[in-house]
Structures are given as structure tokens and as C-alpha cells.
Design a protein that fits this description.
By secondary structure, the chain is an all-alpha fold. The chain has helices at residues 31-46, 70-88, 92-270, 275-299, 301-319, 325-340, 346-368, 373-386, 390-402, 423-429, 438-456, 472-481, 491-511, 513-527, 543-561. It is found in: Nucleus, Nuclear pore complex.
Length: 562
């Protein structure tokens, strides 16, 4: 960056009379004037060398120059014009340098001010930090002095306390020595008196024990006689009560048996069943399928090969389902053709494999994505209609994997022979697997129930058996409400929510006001408990059950509001 100062006008008067010797090689029109001024100047200057002006010699004669031509005149004018243009020219670069200089100076001043302020702030901070350090150091010194004074005070107090304790100990030792002698004498007197008192008490105790023994012996004999009489009377009363109770139980069993027989006959006439019967029917069908049909197929190599070949064709088709009616119809038809091409017992073995493939797909896919239950249920409904005996086999496999939940029946406590079931066997009947977490078990069963509810609301071209009719939606909810043994499981509210979400609107259209009453009972069961009893909350009191009940409550409010 360059700095310069403007030139000042010269105070010398002679500078104005200076005439350059060069005319850039051109003749000037003002040569005569310039020569005259030069001569005058020379004369004025040289006059100092002469005595008088008369002695000054005249100027030399002016040389004769030829006149300039037109080209020379034009060249001179052009040259003078270029000089004027150059003199009056405004140079942007010089202007840029000037502005750059000013801006740089301004930025330098601003930076200097900022640096100065920052330096002052740092000095203030340093001064404050040093002040704080000195204050802290001074405080520590004060605390150290106070601690030393307190330590000295404690030492002095400890010394005084030790002196007082030694003095008191000396006094106590003196008094204890005196009192010890007195106590020894008193102890001797008390021991003699106590021994005499003990002897008297011992003699009195022996007399009392003898008297009590005699009274106890008489009381024992009296109580034994009374107990014998009471036991005899109690035995007679018990025998009479047992006889009456046996007669009453026999009459109640007879009445119950007649009532159950009448109800069963009425249900058979109407085509209805109860939950335990549906569950037992599924278990019996499963047992028959395993013992007869599957055992025959697995024991025959040819039948087993045909079964495996067809099963390898069926299982991938279940996994290829999409929500496309044309694809669903095509896959259903292909599965029907594949299974119908075989005869007994491979036909029933393939029906079992088909049911297992559908249920496994529901456990894996529907659990992750509930919407995938729709195409799976549509294929299941089509196969239930088209394949003979598939309803029974599918129900058997369904109760095997979902337990008693499809029938909404309590878990049996005894086997077919009447023996009590252990907890492991009861879990197996409920469809639970070994070492399966409760959350995984609930999610798996609810996925299966979603497919089942979608099947129930599907319009069938022909009526199916009881477990697959649309009326089972109502029946399932009523059975659940009437079975307290199922209320403590979180599967209950999750399954109810799935049913209402899938078929709630259909139930309102089918049963009308009765459906609304059933929903009100369900609402009571998920809010205050059935009958207002908190111990009868559907789902229990776990965190998962609370969330499931909230979903059921929202769904019921939606259905009742609409």
C-alpha cells in the first residue's frame, strides 16, 4: 500500500519564467513570446554583470525557420489533443487503489479497536481470576488457621477430660472398694435367706404338684369318658350327615345329568354345542388322525413319498398369497386339484399338512402384519368349502396349536381316564410350547384367532359345520364372558379386540340391539369388571392387559357411537 502527499504550489516566482529547452521536436507558435521572455529574463539576470542597462548587449538575432506544412500543423494539433486527453483522463485503477487504501485503513482501525477491547477484557478476566485465586488462597489460610485453633482447643479439652476422668476413676475406685465390702456382707445374708426361702418353696411346690397330679388324673379320666361319648355321638351324626350328603349329591348328580342330557338333546336338535364339547371334538379328531391315517401313511414308503411330494407343492403356495382375488382363486383351485388327486389315507394326511401350513403361516406372518390375515382367511374359507373333511381336520389342528381358545372353553383338569393333569400337560392342551414366553404365546394365538375371525365373517357358498359358521362370533364372545377361567389371560382382551375390529360392524347388522347389549357387557368387563367386580376384569391387571383393554374400549365406543 502506497501513501503520498499532494504537491504544494512553489512559492518561487522564477519558476513560472522557466522555459523548457525541448519542444518535443516541434516548432511552437509561441516561440516568439517565449524567446522574448527568455531574453528579458536573461537581461534581468545578466544586468547584475553590467554597470548599466545600456551596456547590455542586444539579444542575438532569431534564426529564420521555414513555415510549417499542413501535415505538420495537423500533427501538432493531434499531439496537443492527446496531451489534453491524457491530462484530463480519470484512471479507475488509481481510484481503486485510493478506495482500497481507505478501506484497508478503516479495517485496520476496526481490528485495532477490537483487539484493544479483547485485550482489555482478557486483562480484566485475568485480574478477576487472580483476585479470585488470592481470595481463595486467603480463605484457605483462614480455614487452616481456624482448623489449627480448633485442633489445639480439642487437644486442650481432651487433656482436661482425661484429667477429670482419672480423678473420677480414682474416686470411684475408692468408693467401690468400700461398697464392695458392704455388698459382700449383704450378699451372704441374702444368700442365706434365699436358700431358706427356696427350701420352703420347694416343699410347697412338691405338695402342689402332688395335688395337681391327682386332680389332673381325675380330670383326664373324666374327659376321656366325655370324649368317648362325644366321639360316639359325632360318629353317629357324621354317618347320618354323610348318608344325607351322599343322597343329596346322588340326587343332584342325577338332576344335573338329566339336565345336561336334556340340554345336550336340545342342542343336538338345534345344532348347537358348548365349548368343552367343541374342544373335545377337536382333540378326539386329532388323536384319530394321528393314530390311524398319519401312522398308515408314515409306515408305507410309497404313501409317504406321495405325501411328501404333494406337501412340497402345497406349502410354498400358502406362502405366495397376496391380496388379489384372482391369485387367491387360482391358488385355492391348484391346492384342491393337488389334494383331490390322491386317495385315502394320503388325502387326509395332505389335509393335515395343509391345515398346518395355513396355521404356521398365520403364526409367522399375521403376528407381524395383521392385514395379511385377509388373503389367508379367504383361501382357508375356499378350501373349507371345496375339500371334504377339511373342516374337521382344520379344527383339530387349530385346537392343537391354539389350545382351548378357538372353542372359548376352560382348560380341562383331567384326562380322558379321569386322572388329574399336571401343569405341563395343561399347558400343552392350551397350545403353549415348552419354554415359550408368555408374550410370544399370546401374540401367536391372537394371530391364529385373527385368521379364524376373518373366516367366520366370510360369505360361504354352502353352510359349514358349527365352528365355521358366522353365528360362532356371537357364541365365542358369550362363552368367553361365561368362562371366568379365561379372564385372567391377556389373550382374552387381545382376541376380543381382533373380533370387534374384524366383524364388529357385521355383528351390528346381524344382531342389531342384542349386539349392542353384548357390547355393553363387554365394555363393563374391560372397564370396571364384570358385575362391577374389579377381580373379574377381562385380561387381569398386567400392563399388556391394560393396553389391550384400552383398545377394546375404544373399539366398543366406536361401534356404539355409530
Amino acid at each position: 500500500m502506497r501513501f503520498h502527499a499532494p504537491r504544494s504550489a512553489s512559492p518561487s516566482p522564477e519558476r513560472g519564467s522557466y522555459r523548457s529547452q525541448s519542444t518535443y521536436g516541434l516548432n511552437s507558435e509561441s516561440d516568439d513570446d517565449s524567446d522574448a521572455e527568455s531574453a528579458a529574463s536573461s537581461a534581468s539576470t545578466d544586468s547584475f554583470c553590467y554597470r548599466s542597462e545600456s551596456e547590455v548587449p542586444p539579444p542575438p538575432p532569431r534564426p529564420q525557420r521555414p513555415p510549417r506544412s499542413a501535415a505538420e500543423e495537423y500533427y501538432v494539433k493531434d499531439f496537443l489533443t492527446s496531451i489534453r486527453i491524457r491530462v484530463n483522463h480519470h484512471d479507475p485503477y488509481e481510484e481503486f487503489k485510493r478506495k482500497t487504501h481507505e478501506e484497508s485503513l478503516h479495517v485496520a482501525r476496526v481490528n485495532q479497536a477490537l483487539d484493544k477491547r479483547e485485550r482489555h477484557q482478557k486483562q480484566k478476566q485475568t485480574h478477576a481470576a487472580m483476585t479470585q485465586i488470592r481470595t481463595s488462597h486467603h480463605q484457605k489460610q483462614v480455614e487452616a488457621v481456624q482448623a489449627a485453633l480448633a485442633h489445639v482447643s480439642l487437644q486442650q479439652e481432651a487433656l482436661e477430660r482425661g484429667l477429670r476422668e482419672r480423678w473420677n476413676a480414682r474416686n470411684r475406685a475408692l468408693w467401690e472398694g468400700l461398697e464392695g465390702v458392704i455388698r459382700q456382707e449383704e450378699e451372704k445374708v441374702r444368700a442365706r435367706l434365699a436358700e431358706e426361702e427356696r427350701q420352703r418353696e420347694e416343699e410347697a411346690r412338691v405338695r402342689r404338684e402332688e395335688e395337681e397330679r391327682q386332680r389332673a388324673e381325675e380330670e383326664r379320666k373324666r374327659k376321656e369318658e366325655e370324649q368317648k361319648r362325644a366321639e360316639e355321638e359325632e360318629r353317629k351324626h357324621k354317618e347320618e350327615a354323610q348318608a344325607a350328603e351322599a343322597k343329596r349329591r346322588e340326587e343332584e348328580a342325577k338332576t344335573r345329568k338329566e339336565s345336561l342330557a336334556a340340554q345336550k338333546k336340545k342342542r343336538e336338535l338345534l345344532g348347537y354345542t358348548i365349548g368343552p364339547e367343541d374342544f373335545k371334538y377337536g382333540q378326539d379328531t386329532l388323536s384319530s388322525l394321528k393314530r390311524f391315517r398319519m401312522r398308515v401313511v408314515k409306515s408305507d414308503p410309497k404313501l409317504k413319498a406321495a405325501w411328501n411330494a404333494a406337501r412340497r407343492v402345497i406349502t410354498p403356495k400358502i406362502g405366495q398369497l397376496t391380496d388379489d382375488p384372482a391369485a387367491i382363486a387360482r391358488i385355492s383351485e391348484e391346492i384342491c386339484k393337488t389334494i383331490s388327486a390322491h386317495s385315502q389315507p394320503v388325502f387326509h394326511a395332505l389335509l393335515s399338512s395343509l391345515a398346518k401350513a395355513i396355521l404356521v403361516q398365520a403364526e409367522t406372518e399375521v403376528t407381524a402384519e395383521p392385514r395379511s390375515a385377509v388373503p389367508l382367511a379367504q383361501v382357508t374359507a375356499a378350501l373349507l368349502v371345496d375339500l371334504m373333511d377339511f373342516e374337521d381336520i382344520f379344527w383339530a389342528k387349530f385346537t392343537q396349536r391354539a389350545g382351548n381358545w378357538p372353542a372359548a372353553a376352560p382348560t380341562p383338569t383331567r384326562d380322558a381316564a379321569g386322572a388329574l393333569l399336571d401343569p405341563t400337560a395343561r399347558l400343552a392342551l392350551m397350545g403353549a410350547r415348552k419354554d415359550e414366553p408368555a408374550a410370544a404365546y399370546a401374540a401367536r394365538v391372537v394371530g391364529l384367532m385373527r385368521v379364524y375371525f376373518h373366516v367366520l365373517r366370510t360369505n360361504m357358498p354352502r353352510p359349514l359345520k358349527g365352528p365355521f359358521r358366522t353365528t360362532r362370533l356371537w357364541t365365542w364372545l358369550v362363552r368367553l364372558l361365561q368362562t371366568p377361567a379365561l379372564h385372567g389371560y391377556t389373550i382374552a382382551p387381545y382376541s376380543v379386540h381382533a373380533l370387534l375390529e374384524i366383524a364388529g360392524d357385521d355383528g351390528r347388522e346381524i344382531w342389531g340391539a342384542q349386539w349392542a347389549k353384548l357390547l355393553e357387557v363387554l365394555y363393563e368387563g374391560v372397564t370396571t369388571g364384570l358385575g362391577g367386580d374389579e377381580t373379574r376384569l377381562i385380561g387381569g391387571k398386567s400392563d399388556e392387559a391394560v393396553a389391550a383393554r384400552a383398545r377394546v374400549r375404544v373399539e366398543i365406543e366406536r361401534l356404539l357411537a355409530s
